[in-house]
Design brief:
Elements (H helix, E strand, L loop, with lengths): L6 E4 L7 H14 L3 E4 L9 H11 L4 E4 L9 H14 L6 E3 L4 H4 L8 H15 L22 E5 L2 H10 L2 E4 L5 H17 L8 E10 L3 H18 L2 H5 L9 H8 L11 H7 L5 H7 L1 E3 L1 H14 L6 E7 L12 H16 L5
Parallel strand pairs: 1-2, 1-9, 2-3, 4-5, 5-6, 6-7, 7-8, 7-9
Helix pairs in contact: 1-2, 2-3, 3-5, 5-6, 6-7, 8-11, 8-12, 13-14
């Protein structure tokens, strides 16, 4: 049965300057990408909301938002104000990608938000964006004069976070890899959380984030995909269990210290080197946590995953592995190749009705 194609998003752009970022997002829009996301990682990139505001001025159609922001490196009231300001520039095409923080927080020596903290901050931001007055412990309730109803999407992979997100978020980005069992389990957790909160489970929108190794050399692609698998195990070991996989090597933290993998297996500067560190992982592990190979292989696998999933998805974010260089080659780089060689195949394969 045909399925509607999701909106396809990209989360890596030329951020060497504000102007170059805006021009690169405009290029992605022209190429046919549907969404442009930017990590809120203050020690790795320029200010997220300045970049998004510049992109809003330079574009007309593409959806914009952080993926992801967190309640640790900015107070939630600051984030609410910032994203409402971006939405003023890009009305109807702004969303807030929200999560515990992970890399952005750890690089600053801070602790990622706990599930309860993420839930409370989501409720606070939601109320402010809806124009409500909120008790924050100050002399008077907090209120956002320029409020706008921006949808909040929580990015989640663990079962507790997924259930919580189903109870409070407008949408949930599933970060569980590509294995059908993990995708199905994540969807079930979101729906269960919505039902527990007295919400209509079908009203919570769904998205996917897939690490995408668009590398024609199959051996190189597989090595980098192993690093992606190790990154998932670092943060959510249960994802291996659900996929029927075992971690047969040393503790990931010990491996990172011994081989100087920094800051983690997902973000190492040399993903081939970090992939070789975990060469004990079977091919099945590489396959379970990323899309990999040339355009045909990536497109076919993506269609397979989307068709087998127990739900339809509003957004699919195709996170490039490795990070594209800046500037990206305008013809042979990731942004152009995915738009011209992969996305049309996927849309045809899904029998697109958009």
């Amino acid at each position: 049965m045909p399925r509607d194609a999701p909106r396809f998003g990209l989360n890596r752009f030329d951020a060497r300057s504000v102007d170059l970022f805006a021009a690169d997002v405009r290029r992605a829009e022209t190429l046919g990408w549907d969404a442009a996301f930017q990590p809120d990682s203050q020690l790795r990139r320029r200010d997220t909301y300045v970049l998004l505001a510049a992109a809003a001025r330079a574009t007309e159609r593409i959806v914009l938002g952080p993926l992801l922001a967190n309640p640790v490196n900015r107070h939630p009231t600051v984030t609410a104000s910032s994203i409402a300001t971006v939405a003023e520039l890009a009305p109807g095409r702004t969303l807030l990608g929200w999560g515990v923080g992970d890399t952005a927080v750890r690089l600053a020596g801070l602790r990622p938000a706990r599930v309860k903290e993420l839930e409370a901050s989501t409720r606070l931001v939601r109320a402010l964006l809806d124009g409500e007055s909120v008790d924050v412990g100050a002399a008077r309730p907090a209120h956002l004069p320029h409020h706008r109803p921006v949808p909040i999407w929580i990015a989640a992979g663990g079962p507790r976070t997924l259930r919580m997100a189903g109870g409070v978020a407008d949408g949930v980005f599933l970060r569980v890899g590509t294995h059908p069992a993990n995708v199905a389990t994540a969807v079930e957790a979101v729906r269960a959380g919505a039902a527990e909160a007295g919400r209509d489970p079908s009203a919570v929108r769904l998205g996917l984030v897939f690490h995408t190794v668009l590398v024609d050399d199959a051996a190189r692609a597989r090595t980098m995909a192993r690093s992606m698998a190790a990154g998932y195990y670092e943060y959510s070991p249960a994802l291996f269990q659900a996929a029927g996989l075992d971690w047969a090597g040393p503790d990931p933290e010990a491996l990172k210290r011994r081989h100087q993998v920094w800051p983690d297996f997902h973000h190492a500067s040399d993903l081939e080197a970090s992939g070789r560190v975990v060469d004990f992982l079977p091919d099945a592990a590489a396959d379970a946590f990323s899309l990999q190979g040339g355009p045909v292989e990536v497109a076919e696998r993506l269609v397979e995953v989307l068709r087998s999933a127990p739900a339809e998805f509003d957004h699919v974010v195709l996170h490039p592995i490795p990070n594209p260089p800046a500037p990206d080659d305008p013809e042979r780089g990731y942004t152009a190749r995915m738009a011209r060689e992969v996305l049309p195949r996927v849309r045809r394969g899904l029998g697109e009705r958009r």
